[in-house]
Inverse folding.
């Protein structure tokens, strides 16, 4: 999965459609190991647009990608984040931040 | 009930008084029948609790919580380390794919996109503040 991401990052920026195809096969196709929790409708739209070679609409595709990104943010903010705030890792992060601030103040 | 209000303005309080009287009578009647002091005490307790309940929380706990305000989602996402910690947490939950997916996005279409990451995050923090 992480390799897929690296591939997407290293591919030339002009080839958006191919990038998105890779991305979709990693995150959006139903049943994939690391399937993202975006709405099914959104997944369908992105998959269809990224595989449509004859009538490729880049603007539309980018629009959907932005919406998907927004959805993901919302999902994380509403779902995972409140749990993260209550977790030990969050407490660890906060205490680390506080010690860093103290160090800066001393210097 | 409410349709003929003006003519029977005096009626509702009278009725309620009558009801409370009957309730009192009933409770008085119940006591000798049951002969249990504990049951009477139980009946009294919830009433006093409901009267005092709204007064208590105004004084202390809310103010105490306000001092230890947690960081917003936006603040953590804009902090490199914060993101790393959030990622660790998500990996523990086996739900990291959302953040991984999100981290890919800015790179490969930032050349085409007008919406920047900070804009999305402020949009998002509005939602978080509301919840």
């Amino acid at each position: 999965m992480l390799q897929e991401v690296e591939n997407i990052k290293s591919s030339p920026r002009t080839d958006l459609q191919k990038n998105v195809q890779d991305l979709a096969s990693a995150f959006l196709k139903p049943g994939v190991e690391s399937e993202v929790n975006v709405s099914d409708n959104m997944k369908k739209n992105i998959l269809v647009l990224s595989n449509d070679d004859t009538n490729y609409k880049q603007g539309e595709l980018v629009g959907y990608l932005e919406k998907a990104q927004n959805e993901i943010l919302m999902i994380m903010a509403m779902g995972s984040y409140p749990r993260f705030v209550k977790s030990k890792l969050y407490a660890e992060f906060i205490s680390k931040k506080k010690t860093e601030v103290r160090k800066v103040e001393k210097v | 009930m409410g349709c003929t209000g003006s003519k029977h303005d005096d009626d509702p309080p009278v009725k309620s008084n009558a009801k409370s009287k009957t309730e009192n009578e009933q409770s008085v009647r119940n006591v000798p029948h049951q002969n249990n002091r504990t049951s009477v005490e139980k009946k009294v307790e919830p009433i006093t609790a409901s009267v005092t309940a709204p007064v208590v929380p105004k004084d202390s706990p809310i103010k105490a919580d306000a001092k230890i305000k947690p960081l917003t989602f936006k603040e953590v996402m804009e902090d490199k380390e914060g993101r790393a910690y959030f990622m660790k947490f998500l990996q523990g939950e086996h739900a990291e794919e959302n953040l991984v997916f999100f981290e890919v996005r800015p790179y490969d279409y930032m050349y085409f996109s007008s919406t920047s990451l900070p804009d999305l995050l402020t949009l998002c923090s509005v939602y978080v503040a509301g919840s």
User: Anything to note?
Assistant: Residues 11-34 of chain B form the longest helix (24 residues).
